[in-house]
Amino acid sequence: MLFAAMAAAVPAHAETLPIEAVYPAGSDNLAILNTLRMGSFNGRDGSSLALELEQQLRNVSVRGEAYYQIFVGGGGPRADGTVTGSAYSSVENNVEIVQETECVAKNDKGKCIEKRVVNIRCTRRSVTLTYTLSVVSPRGERLYSMSKPSVTSNLICPQTYNVAPVEVVIASLISNAARELRFEFAPAQVRTDIRVKEGTSGLQGAAKKTFKNGIAATKRNVASACKLWTEVDYLVPNHAPTLFNLGLCAESDRDYDKAEQLYRRTAELDRSERYATESLERLARRRKAEQQLAMHASRRTR
């Protein structure tokens, strides 16, 4: 959900380079913590939100390692942060009149020859989950707090079928809230397929053939593709698509400085190149995530 915009949409036929990236948590204060204690959650839906959030946080893993150690209830080891909150659901039903056109007369061939507008009495059902969350340090410092309503609205008419029960809608709202909160707590590791640039304008002969071979190689051997594009860059130093693709190679290797340099050169050569701009923005997020991971690791070694 949060990472849909991290990469440009990739058509089915396009060649891509896989980028395994870690993106930052919403909160720096939460991202640096190593241990969490799940405290009390108030409200009729508080316990359900607490369980969903606890499971989400237990499942957080970055580069093969569990991110948090989770404690539940009072007593036991001291935690870096104690998580408390609340969750309340409510349902509101309001009458809503909807106009529809219906046929009142047909000819002998079954074709409608007379219609009329009728008013249909429907119900607008709105299910709201209002939830809060707070995380405090062992010294009582507030590290994070939030309050948010989440609403699902459905128009239910006499001919509406497969209407989800209220209990199911509430459960879905709680699950969605827990997933959103998870991204506030910890960085997320995501694999995205970034479309490579395939333009050959400005290339001729061996350089053009080598560039195309690099495009084809992305399907089976990324390292080989990157090597071929390096050869093209030697032959034709300022070919924007080649520079962009080499930027992807450097980013894939986590060489952010080199990747940034290549993306900036691409943007300078082609001011309309949105992929380079998007890639620079992606790099900035990745650098922030690395800072969070470094702080997280430093606290673990204290």
Automatic annotation (TrEMBL):
Claim: Kinase is one of the keywords in the record: no
Stretches forming TPR repeats: 240-273
Keyword line: TPR repeat
InterPro entries in the record: TPR-like_helical_dom_sf (IPR011990), TPR_rpt (IPR019734)
The name this protein goes by in its record: Tetratricopeptide repeat protein
Species assigned in the record: Sphingomonas hengshuiensis
